Amino acid sequence: xxxxxxTPLLDALKANAARPHAPFYTPGHKLGEGISQPxxxxxxxxxxxxxxxxxxxxxxLFAPQGVIQEAQQLAAEAYGASQTWFLVNxxxxxxxxxxxxxCGTGDKIILPRNVHSSAIAxxxxxxxxxxxxxxxYDPVLDIAHSITPNAVxxxxxxxxxxxxxxxxxxxxxxxxxxxxxxxxxxxQYNIPLxxxxxxxxxxxxxxxxxTPGLAAGADLTVQSIHKVLGAMTQxxxxxxxxxxxxxxxxxxxxxxxxxxxxxxxxxxxxxAARQQMALHGKKLMSRTLQLADEAxxxxxxxxxxxxxxxxxPPYQGGLGGSPSLGGLGGSPGFIALDKTRxxxxxxxLGLTGFEADEILDEKLGVTAEFASLQHLxxxxxxxxxxxxxxxxxxxxxxxxxxxxxxxxxxxxxxWQNLDRxxxxxxxxxxxxxxxxxxxxxxxxxxNKRICTEIVCPYPPGIPxxxxxxxITKSVLEYxxxxxxxxGFISGCNDMSLKTLKVVK
Length: 504
Known about the structure:
By secondary structure, the chain is of the alpha+beta class. The chain contains 16 helices and 19 strands. The protein is globular.
C-alpha cells in the first residue's frame, strides 16, 4: 500500500514557490510581482508564488513521470481505481474523454435523456449516435431519477452493436439507481459502463453513503472533487478499472481536451483533497451526515415543507420494481439517496422553487445549489458548519411564516398544468447538426425544424433540446413556461429564447 500521508505534488509546488530564483518563464506575473494590486489585495501574494508552470520538478500533466504520476497513483489507490487522471478542465472534459475513448463516428452509445450537456458535447466531438433512454420519472415530485436495468437490457437487445453505456450516478438530486445491475447487463455484451459520478466523489469514504461507482462495477467514473470535497473549482478526476477501456485512448483524448498550460494550483488541490479524505474521510463524512440529518429532520417538521427521502419499502434489487411515486415505494431508478444532498419541496407554500430561491438568497442569506419548479436543492459538504445549518433552518422557518400564500399563485397553477410529456426525435446526429449550415428564426417559426443548439434550463444543465433533434410544440411550450416562472435558459445563442438556430 502507498503512504496516503504523502502529498508529492503539493510538496513540490510549495518547494518551488519558496525557491529563490529569477523567473524567465510563464506566467507573466512572475511569482505575483506583476499582479494588479486589487487582485493581490483580495487573494494575497502567496497564491501567485505557487501559480507556476511545468518546471522540471513539477512534472508534465500529459506525460507524467514524477510528482504528478505519484499523486495520481495515490488517488487511484484512495478511490479504488487501477488508474486515475487529474483533470483541470472539470468533469466536463472527463465525460467528453470517456466518450471519445470508447466511441467513434457512427458508433452507438446508450445513455439517459437527462444527461449533462457535457455528454452532448462528447457526442458532437466523437460523432457517436445516442440511443437515449428515458429515466424513471416520479410524477408526484416531478423529479427524474436514474435509468433502470430493464431499460438498459432492452436497449442492448435492440442495439447489440452499442460501444458503451453511460449512466448518471448520482443525479443532481442525489438519487442513485441500481448501478450494479446495470453493470452486470452491460458487461454481458463486453462493453464498458461509463459513469458520470460528478456529484459522488465522497461516496467511498463512509458506509452510510451510496456505493461508489467503481465498487458497483463501473469501468470508468468521472468525479468533480471540487463539487463536494476540498479541491478548487474546476479540479476533477477520471478513474478506470479493468481492461475494457484503452488507457492510451483516454490519455490522448484528454490531451485534446485539456489546456497545455494546466493550473498547478488546481492540480495541487486535488493532491491535498485526496490526502484529506484518505486520512480523515470517514470522520469528515460522519460530521457532514450529522449536519445533513439535522437539517433534514428540522425542515421536514416545518408546515408546508417536505424533503426528498429514500423510498420505503426499499427496492430489493434485480430487474423488477415498481415506479417510485412520491416516496411510496422503492424502484430500480431510486435505490439509494446521498443524504448530504437536501431537496426541499416548497410547492405547498404557494411558491415556485424559483421564487423561494430568490427570497432565501436575497432576504434571508441562504443560497441553494439550484432551484426547480417545485424544489430547492442544497449541497451539504465537509465545508459546512453548524451555524450554516442553523441559518438554513431559520431561513425556511421565516419563509414558511412570512412568505407563504394561502392559495396557489398563478405561476403555480401554470406549473400544475404544465405538460412534461415532451416529444423527442433525433433526425441528425448531434455532430452533423452542430456543423450543418444553419439559420436563426423567431421561436414561433421553429416548430418541426431541426435544432443546432444545446438548450437547457440551468442548473442543472440538462438539455431539453440538442443538436439534431426535431423541435416540437411541446418542447417550445415547456421552455417558455420554465422561463416565465423564473428559470434560466442556457446553451443557446439567444438566451432570451426569442429565437433559435436551426438547420437551414
